[in-house]
Amino acid sequence: MASHRVELPCKASGHPAPKYRWLKDNRPLEPDTRFRQSVTGLLIERAQSSDTGAYVCEVWNSYGNAEVVGTLLVKEFLKVVVSPRKVKGSVGSQVSLSCSVTGSEEYQLSWYRNGELIYPSNSVRMTGQNRENLVMAGMAKSDGGAYQCFARHSKMSAQDYVQVILEDGTPKILASFSEKVYNINEFVSLTCTVKGTPEPRVTWTLDDDAVVRDSRHRISHYTSAEGHAVSHLNISQTQVPDGGVYRCICNNSAGTVSYQARINVRGACQINSSNTPSHIHIDMS
C-alpha cells in the first residue's frame, strides 16, 4: 500500500563483494532519497503509486554476474476531497461543489445532502466524467447542511464532506434619504445603501414612474468596501416638477425591498403634463 515501507529482496554473496545496480522498467533506477540499498535488498520508504513497475536487480564481480527480476504494484488508498472547504451562500443563489478522487482511475461517485442521496433535477446538475461536479441553482433555506462526496472502488471506499451555510440574502436597506424641502435650482442628492446576496440591483422611481436619466438627473452605482451596493440619484438645477415621492427599489434573486420619502421643491403650483391625459373620451351610449 502507498506510504508503506517496501523492500525488494536481492541478497548476493561472493568474493570479491558483489556490486549492485537496479533497473526499473528497463531503465536505470533514478536517484531518490526514498531508495536505499541494504544488505538484503532495495528499501523504498513511503512507497508511491509511481513506484509501480518491473524491477531488475543486477549483481556482478570479477568472476561473473547474476540478476533477479520482480514486479512491484503499489496500490493507493482512495482519497476524497470536496472543495471549496468553506461554503457560504444565500437563499436563491447558486452553489457549486467539486469532488477530487485519488487512488484509482476507476470509481463510482455519489453525492449526499444531510445523509440523503442527491439526484439530478431541474435545479441540480452533476457534470464531469464521474459526476464529480455538483451545481445547484436557486438554493432554498432547507438546502443548507452537510454535503458528502462518497467514492467506491472494489472493496475500497472514501468520503469527504463540507458544510454549506445559507444566509438570508434578502436585500436590507442600511442607509437612505429622508423627507426634505429644497429651493429651486438647489442640488439634490439621494442615496440608498443596501446589502444582500447576490448583490442587489437598485432602481429609482418618482411617483411610481421610472426616473429617466438626462443632463439634470444622474444615477450612479458602486460597491462599498464592505460589499454593500450604494446607489446615488443626483438632481441638478432642481425644478418644482422634481418634487414628489422618490422610491429606491432593491432586488435580487432572494427578494425585493424598497424605501420611499417625499422630496418637496418650493415654488408655484404646477400640473405635471406628463401625467395628464391630453384627450378624455366618454362614451354616453
From TrEMBL:
<keyword id="KW-1133">Transmembrane helix</keyword>
<dbReference type="InterPro" id="IPR013098">
    <property type="entry name" value="Ig_I-set"/>
</dbReference>
<dbReference type="GO" id="GO:0030424">
    <property type="term" value="C:axon"/>
</dbReference>
<keyword id="KW-0393">Immunoglobulin domain</keyword>
<keyword id="KW-1015">Disulfide bond</keyword>
<feature type="domain" description="Ig-like">
    <location>
        <begin position="171"/>
        <end position="264"/>
    </location>
</feature>
<protein>
    <submittedName>
        <fullName>Down syndrome cell adhesion molecule</fullName>
    </submittedName>
</protein>
<feature type="domain" description="Ig-like">
    <location>
        <begin position="1"/>
        <end position="69"/>
    </location>
</feature>
<keyword id="KW-0732">Signal</keyword>
<dbReference type="InterPro" id="IPR036179">
    <property type="entry name" value="Ig-like_dom_sf"/>
</dbReference>
<feature type="domain" description="Ig-like">
    <location>
        <begin position="78"/>
        <end position="165"/>
    </location>
</feature>
<keyword id="KW-0812">Transmembrane</keyword>
<keyword id="KW-0677">Repeat</keyword>
<dbReference type="GO" id="GO:0007420">
    <property type="term" value="P:brain development"/>
</dbReference>
<dbReference type="GO" id="GO:0098632">
    <property type="term" value="F:cell-cell adhesion mediator activity"/>
</dbReference>
<dbReference type="GO" id="GO:0007411">
    <property type="term" value="P:axon guidance"/>
</dbReference>
<dbReference type="Pfam" id="PF07679">
    <property type="entry name" value="I-set"/>
</dbReference>
<dbReference type="InterPro" id="IPR003598">
    <property type="entry name" value="Ig_sub2"/>
</dbReference>
<dbReference type="InterPro" id="IPR013783">
    <property type="entry name" value="Ig-like_fold"/>
</dbReference>
<keyword id="KW-0472">Membrane</keyword>
<dbReference type="GO" id="GO:0005886">
    <property type="term" value="C:plasma membrane"/>
</dbReference>
<keyword id="KW-0130">Cell adhesion</keyword>
<dbReference type="InterPro" id="IPR007110">
    <property type="entry name" value="Ig-like_dom"/>
</dbReference>
<dbReference type="InterPro" id="IPR003599">
    <property type="entry name" value="Ig_sub"/>
</dbReference>
